[in-house]
Every structure is written in structure tokens, then in C-alpha cells.
Design brief:
6 helices, five-stranded antiparallel beta sheet, alpha+beta, 224 residues, three-stranded antiparallel beta sheet, 42% helix
């Protein structure tokens, strides 16, 4: 008996361009909060500098306090730049990146299923992109459909947002991504099963923020 419910057959993904961008935006917003978060070490340094500046202002008089006022103003400017300024800059860069991207055509006709060994993707033969080595052997049905499986061990990162589960997979050094809308649960796609397998086989969710957001999470399908 299976531990979790699985799909009897793949369901239509029907991902729209609006959802494609919405998934990127939600993923960015989630990780952008981590990017602009100030570390404990930084807060300690800021606190020490502020304490020294306030002590100088309180116990000294005249022109001697100017340097301490400058220290206090510098702390305020740093905090504003580190939070609101950095957040604004990163958002501008993100908007520039996604403005030139479009959803891969195969996502419009793709069907998604889930089995114990991995995520099943089925699509018409005419829309099948070139798959990297490491996928299971294609299964052709009726000469019109082709199927591939992303095994759990091929998934390197994942993250859940309000409306989507986003995964990165790596096969033979080639990266790809897959967006799963949570609305598929209404079509009896077991989102809970997907989440459980990702937690078991991949671990804690999250993405590396060192690379550009759209390059990391949604590689250009035209790049080989």
C-alpha cells in the first residue's frame, strides 16, 4: 500500500504567462526578505556605534560633539540604505530580468503527474524540448505523446510560495526548473504528496541567492 496518494494519470498543467510571472515574483519576494535582513552581528556593531555616539553627545559639549552627530547620522543612513535602498535596487534589477523572459511553450501543453519515484511530465512530441542525459527513456504513446520523469534525487532545490511549489533540478550538470500551481489540487493532483517527497529527499526548502534570481530559478530555455 502506498504511503501517500499519487496520480492515476498526469493532469493538465495549463500554466499561463501570468502565472509564470506570478511564480517568479512570489519566489523573489520571499527570498528578497532574506536578502535584506540584517544579521545579528551587524546589529551589534550598529548598536555599539550608536551607544558611543549618544554618549559623546550627552557628555561632551560644543564642537566636540560634531563627530558623534555624524556617527549617528551615518548609522541612520546605513540602515535606510541596507533595508529600503537595497530592496528597491534588487527589485529594479529583477524587473529588468523578467521583462525579457517568456514562458517556455511546452509548459502550455504539459501534463504533470506524481509517482513514488519522481515527477512525471507528459507533453506532445512536437513540444518536447531537448532533454539532458539522465532522464528515463522516453515513452511514446500513440506516436503523439512523450513522457519523462524527474527523479527525486535530481531535484537540487525547492521552495513553496502562497500559490506555487517551485523546483530546480540538475541532470548531468544541466539545470532546469518546474513550477507547480497549487490550484492543481482541485484536479486531484496531490500537492501534499509532492511536498512530503521534497522534504524527505531534498530537505529544507530555499534557493541560493548568490546568482541572479531569474538565472537561478528560471534558466533561459534557449540556453544549452
Amino acid at each position: 500500500m502506498a504511503l501517500y496518494p499519487y496520480t492515476l494519470q498526469p493532469v493538465d498543467l495549463n500554466l499561463t504567462d501570468a502565472e509564470f510571472r506570478q511564480a517568479q515574483t512570489q519566489l523573489f519576494d520571499s527570498n528578497n526578505q532574506q536578502l535584506t535582513r540584517i544579521s545579528t552581528k551587524t546589529w551589534v556593531i550598529v548598536g555599539i556605534i550608536s551607544a558611543i555616539a549618544l554618549a559623546g553627545i550627552i557628555f561632551l559639549q560644543g564642537y566636540s560633539t560634531i563627530i558623534f552627530w555624524l556617527m549617528l547620522v551615518g548609522v541612520v543612513i546605513y540602515l535606510l540604505a541596507r533595508t529600503y535602498g537595497l530592496k528597491w535596487y534588487v527589485k529594479q534589477e529583477f524587473d529588468k530580468q523578467i521583462s525579457g523572459q517568456s514562458m517556455p511553450e511546452e509548459m502550455k501543453t504539459m501534463k504533470i503527474g506524481i509517482q513514488q519515484h519522481g515527477l512525471v511530465m507528459t507533453m506532445p512530441m512536437t513540444n518536447v524540448p531537448k532533454m539532458p542525459k539522465g532522464y528515463n527513456s522516453p515513452l511514446v504513446r500513440g506516436g503523439q505523446m512523450q513522457q519523462a520523469i524527474i527523479k527525486w534525487e535530481n531535484i537540487s532545490n525547492w521552495q513553496e510560495t502562497a500559490d506555487f511549489i517551485v523546483m530546480m533540478f540538475n541532470v548531468e550538470g544541466q539545470q532546469g526548473s518546474q513550477i507547480i500551481p497549487k490550484r492543481l489540487e482541485k484536479q486531484k493532483f496531490p500537492i501534499g504528496t509532492l511536498r512530503n517527497h521534497l522534504q524527505e529527499h531534498v530537505g529544507i526548502q530555499g534557493f541560493d541567492l548568490k546568482d541572479k534570481a531569474t538565472d537561478k530559478y528560471f534558466p533561459d530555455p534557449n540556453l544549452k
